[in-house]
Amino acid sequence: MANEQTGANYRVKERIKFGEIFGYGLGDFAGNLIYGMVSSFATYYYTNSVGMAAAAVGTMFMLSRIFDGVSDIIMGLLIDRTKSRHGKARPWILWMVVPFAIAVILQFAVPQSFSPMGKLIYAYITYNFLSTIVYTAVNQACGTLNVMITDNPQDRARLSISRMAMAMIAVILLNSTVMPLVAVFGGGSRAWTIVAAIMGIVSVVLLLITFATTKERVGTEDKAENGWEENKQKKEQVPIGTALKALFTNKYWVNRILFALAITIATMTTSANVYYAQYWLGDENLTGILSIANVIPMLIALGFVNFFLKRIGNRNTSLLGAGIMLIGFVIQFIAPASYMMVLIGTGIRGFGTGLASTVIAVMLGDTIDYGEWKSGIRTDGLIYSASSFGTKVGTGIATASLGWALAVGNFDAALAVQGDSALASIKFVFTILPMLATILAVILNLLFNLDKKMPQIRNDLREREVQAGK
Length: 470
Fold this sequence. Notes:
Number of strands: 0
Structural class: mainly alpha
Largest sheet: none
Number of helices: 16
CATH architecture: Up-down Bundle
Number of domains: 1
CATH topology: Growth Hormone, Chain: A
Order of helices and strands: HHHHHHHHHHHHHHHH
Strand content: under 5%
Shape: globular
CATH class: Mainly Alpha
Distance between the termini: 27 Å
Radius of gyration: 22 Å
C-alpha cells in the first residue's frame, strides 16, 4: 500500500493545483446549466408551454437518447484520433462552445405557429442537435479530460469532486431561477427562449475558462513538459474493431456502464420535480426547494468522499452511497403527500447520490487502467465516451418514462387538479422507478471487486513502460 499512497507507481508525477481543479469543474457547471434546462424543464416546456402531447415527447426523448448513446462512441473515437497542440479532448471544448449556446436557444424556441406535427419535427431536430451532437462533444471532452489530466487516483477524485460540486451548484442555480425568470419575462414561450439564451451565454464563458486552465498529461508525447518520467505510449492508432473488442471484454467497464445506467435513472427522475411540486405538493414554485433539498446534501457529501475512499475504498464508498439513496426513496414512497417527509427523503437520497456519483469517474479510471493491463490497449476517449452511453440511455429512460407515465395516467395540462391516475403516474416516476434503479445499483456494486487488484495492476503497467523504454 505504500506505493499506492506515495504515488511511486503513477506515471504522472505532477500533482494537480487548485486552479486547474476549479477550472475543470467549471466545465460541468456550464454543462449542467444546459443539461439541466433539458432534463428538468424540457418536458414541462413542451407540454405546458408549447402544447405538445406528453406521449409524443416521451417517445422523442427515448429514441433520441439511443442515437445519443451511439454518438458517444463515435465521439470517443474522434477524441482518440484528434491531434492538436491543445491535446485530444481540450480542443473539442473550444470548438463547440458557440454551437452549444446556439443549440439550447433553438431547442427552447419552438415556433407557436407550427402545426402539432411541425412542432414535433422541430423538437426532434433541435433536441438532437443539442443533445446528440453538441452536448455529446462537450461532455465527452470534459469527461475524458479527467483521465488525461492525471492517472493519480487521489487527484482524479479531487477533479471528480470539483466536477460534481460545480454541477450541483449549477443545478441549484438553475432550479431556483428558471421558473421565476420565466415569470419575469412574461411566462410564455418567448420567455423560455430568453432564459435559454441567458444560460447559453454563461456556459460559453465558463467553458472557455475550462479550456484555458486545464492541461492534458496522460498519453502526451512531451514527457518533460507534462510530468512523465517514462512515457512510451504507442503512437499508432488502434483499429476500431480491436478497440471495441477490448472494450466489451472489459467486465469491469460493463459493470460500470450498467451502474451508470441505474444511477442515472435514479437521479434524472428530477424531471418529475416540477410536476410533483405542482400536483402533489400544491405549488410549482417548490421545484426550487426540492432541488436545493437534494443538492445541498450532495455538496455536503462531497466533503466526505476522500474520507471514505481512503478508509473503505472506491467500491464500498459507491455501495454506501447507493444504500443511503435507497433509504431516501423508501421514505418518499411511504409518505408521498407529506411535504416534510418528501424533503427529508430528498435530502437523504441527495447525500447518497453525492457519494455514489462522485466515485463513478474514479472507478471508471480504474477500468481504463484494467483494460490497458488486460489487453495492452488504452483508448481513454472511447472507454469514457462509451461509458456515458449508460448515462445517456438512463436519462432517456427517465425522461421518456415521465412522458409515457403522464400519457398513461391521462394527464391534462389544462387541469389545475389532476385525477388519481395522473397523480399515481407522477409518483411512479418520482419515487418507484428511481427506487428500483437504486436497488440495481446496489447489486452491481456488490459484484464489483476491482479495488483490491489495482495496486498490482498499476505496478505492472509502470514496469511495462520501464521495459519499453529500455
